[in-house]
Write a structure and sequence with these properties.
Pfam families: GatC. The chain is mostly helical and 95 residues long. The chain has 3 helices and 2 strands. Helix 1 packs across helix 2 (21-39).
């Protein structure tokens, strides 16, 4: 597979980029070099490699959910700029 100038122009158009002719040629060359390097992966023998989702073992670092005491309504509203009927009062965003 090879990236052409037309491919670069198409992607630049999608990204709303204006590229000079020199930049188009430069990007086409760079993208082709990336693809050539990625094709080397096809040479690897991976038949005996077990599929994984992570390279390192993953463990849950979250604590267990436990019911704990919560702050009181008065404490929660203590620093509120404005409250009404035990709730935060905020400016209306719709008319």
């Amino acid at each position: 597979m090879s990236i052409t100038i037309k491919d670069v122009e198409h992607v630049a158009n999608l990204a709303r980029l204006e590229l000079s002719e020199q930049e188009k040629e430069q990007f086409a060359g760079q993208l082709n070099a990336i693809l050539k390097y990625a094709e080397k992966l096809n040479e690897l023998q991976t038949d005996d490699v077990e599929p994984t989702t992570h390279v390192l073992p993953v463990r849950n670092v979250m604590r267990e959910d436990e019911v704990q005491a919560s702050v009181t309504n008065e404490t929660a509203l203590r620093n509120a700029p404005d409250d009404e009927d035990g709730q935060f009062k905020v400016p209306a965003v719709l008319e």
